[in-house]
Amino acid sequence: MAEIDDVAAELVLLFRGLKGMHRSAVSEAGLRLEMPATAVLATLDEAGRQRASTLAEALHVDLSSVSRQVAALEREGWLRRERDPADSRAALLELTDAGRDVLAQVRDARLAHLARRLPGWTGPELHEFATQLRRFRTDLSAADDSLPPLPASAQGSPSPDLDTSGRPPGEPDRTPARAGKES
After folding, report:
1. Nearest-angstrom CA–CA distance, 33 and 22
2. How far apart are CA 146 and CA 75, in angstroms?
3. How far is 58 from 53, CA to CA, in rounded Å?
4. Burial of 152 (0-12, 13-18, 19+ CB in 10 A)
5. Over residues 103-120, mean pLDDT
6. What pLDDT was estimated at residue 75?
7. Which residues 6+ apart lie within 8 Å of 60 measured at CB?
8. What span, in angstroms and rounded, lies between the C-alpha atoms of 69 and 38?
9. Which of 75, 131, 132, 162 has its CA 20 to 30 Å from the CA of residue 140?
């Protein structure tokens, strides 16, 4: 399975590169907005008003992570909280006009950044790449949707029945060693 190991290694490097691209693009646009905050804004833009717990589920993060981002975005005036009419104990989060504006700036900066870094890619190459990325993302999402929800112990700290590697105690490490690759 060397091919799948190569894919896994490239994904780690791609994730690092995407974080760097985001940082550069927002910096060039004169913004200060972390990737997780952008994800919160984008999810609210796509899905509309929702509870923080629903947002955390959609982003595959724990509620405390979303709460930190929501508080910061609310201070900036990019989202607002309103009482949920169906349950007055809960709040619904939604983008403000200023939040939509900053999200549009981030998206424009990202497109400009990508265009500058991929000048040699033809239209058909970009189309094929987007098609393969969509297929990859769809397949990953389908696999995630078929899994049972994570237990609460796995959403923020290791479960007591797993060792620090995520394997049950005593289970041997079957991960192939790769020199020079960091995960």
Report:
1. 9
2. 37
3. 9
4. exposed
5. 95
6. 96
7. 144
8. 9
9. 162
